[in-house]
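User: Hello! I'm new to structural biology and keep hearing that structure can be predicted from sequence alone. Could you demonstrate with DeoR/GlpR transcriptional regulator? Please show me the input and the output so I can see what each looks like.

Assistant: Of course. The first part below is the input, the amino acid sequence of DeoR/GlpR transcriptional regulator. The second part is the output, the predicted structure written as tokens.
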Amino acid sequence: MSENQNLLAEQRRALILDEVRRRGGVRVNELTRRLNVSDMTIRRDLDALARQGVIEKVHGGAVPVVEASTHEPGFEVKSALELSAKEDIARTAAAMAQPGSAIALSGGTTTYALARHLLDVPDLTVVTNSVRVADVFHDAQRPAAGRGARPGTATVVLTGGVRTPSDSLVGPVADRAIDSLHFDLLFLGVHGISAEAGLSTPNLAEAETNRRFVRSARRVVVVADHTKWGTVGLSSFATLDEVDTFVTDAGLAPGAREEIGEHLPGLVVAGEAHEPPEETVSPG
């Protein structure tokens, strides 16, 4: 972790959480040196992370909390994690969407970040079960002070359904809506991804809705930061073989990259040089 006195609190806490998870624990004095902030600041950060339920404070430092497979954090909690990684992933994934195509975005904080970058892609038709994603496009269509609505903004279809803690709409209403549609490209956020369990979520109804998304898409692109690798939720909804491309960040370990490469054709690491992704599709 680089030293930076000007890190925003949420950025600093995301760095601390990542360090806790990677190393299995950290000490307060190590964090003060690496982040170049006071002991009191670090303790406040650890208090905040402990209140969110993502770390456990111990004498002199903190250790990660092992989440149950049924635990589903809320949107605000997840929004504060891996901020720079999500932005890198979103910027890279947005380049895969072609003007005039029909795309789907599942719920999640990474797809929410992606939605903001997709505003620059003209004439999209967007289907989503995320209230937050729909709001991004809706706000872009509002006339701003002194000018009209943003040109070329997307046509957005919100599926309806029952709202989850992560602000996704799931259940029979969402499932029926998705079943009747066909997408050129699906951008899919996940709670967990592993070779054994595939893509998984703690929410049974969300798992079924995500299955419908995968079934209705010509191409499936998973957008998830490196901390999702090895996490397993209660219910699996797709195998790695059903994924065309996994867009992640540079924090993904070399061993994980090799394992992913054995199961799916495309691994794109945001911020690293790579060939243009094959899954870019034209509408039709």
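User: So the tokens describe the shape?

Assistant: Right, they're a compact way of writing down the 3D structure. Reading them back into a model, for example: The longest strand covers residues 55-58.
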